[in-house]
Amino acid sequence: MTSQPGLGDAKFHPLFNDETADIIISSNMGTLYRMHKLILRKTSNLPLHFDDQHVPLDSSGPTTNSEAHISSFNGVKSDMSDPDITLPFPDHPIERVLSMISGLSMDPWKSFTELEETVDVIQYLDKPGPLSIVRASCLIPVFTSEPVRLYGLAVKFGWEDEAQHAAQLTFSLNLLGDAQESNPSLGDQLSKLSGTALYKLLQLHQRRRDKFRESLYSQSIFGAGNVQESICSVCASHLGNSPWRDFRSRMLLEMDQRVDCETIMNSDLEAWEETTRCFEARCGCGRLYYDKVDTLRVIRCCVKQLPKNLYLSVINRIPICIISWSL
Description:
Elements: E1 11-12, E2 23-26, E3 31-35, H1 37-43, E4 85-86, H2 91-102, H3 112-125, H4 128-137, H5 141-144, H6 147-156, H7 160-169, H8 175-180, H9 184-191, H10 195-216, H11 223-226, E5 230-231, E6 238-239, H12 242-257, H13 262-265, H14 273-280, H15 292-304
Protein name: BTB domain-containing protein
């Protein structure tokens, strides 16, 4: 294929070099893309600035956003070396967006940065179709591995289901501790969230901590461990509950680190010294203080019932679990 006369040594993208196309788009790197005006009109609000002769519909009015990058000409261009539209973006995200609206295949997504660059082009051109493609693909592993960025993107566009899912993926992160110490990039990501989005996310994490603490201190759920002093049902000896209190404190410490309670839900919990001391504690008569199997079952039941919803319209309630203590 040959270049259009007057464009000199300009480089056309090989996938977008149909000489019958009537619009030429340029990236900020100088790459040119031939596109059919009809495709642009059907998929973007940008071509609505042109009439059938490529003349801006309101050339006398002020220009904003993409209008400022559109060349004006009457019937034919005044300068054939100028593209019709110059986009202030590099090649790769422009190629991806034009491929979306043209029905061409695309390379797999490689990073969240690539997604954000593509979304910038989509927003600039006001293209709802490509944005719906982004929404449909935003929960693939390459994006869910960065849940805070995914959450920010979903909140920005009002994608409630995706925002909820991304918020739950952040449960494995210590948002405040990691952001300040071991994971500086997380702090940068949090700083880019809107105030409302950040507040809702931190509030959800705190609601989970508060609900778990409330459950562990509840006498109706863990009565044998939370009373001031227990009486052995065999020898009537007075028993202290320090083993349970130490175990409870360790669980709350783990919850402060990550609100998904992963270490509580898996076998790591049973390797803790506090767990061993709690469930090996015995009365002088040999009776175990606490029933390990039932206690761990109820703890995990409580974790599963912790709040997961970003919004306060849904209130999760922990059912009272009747457990069989050894006392």
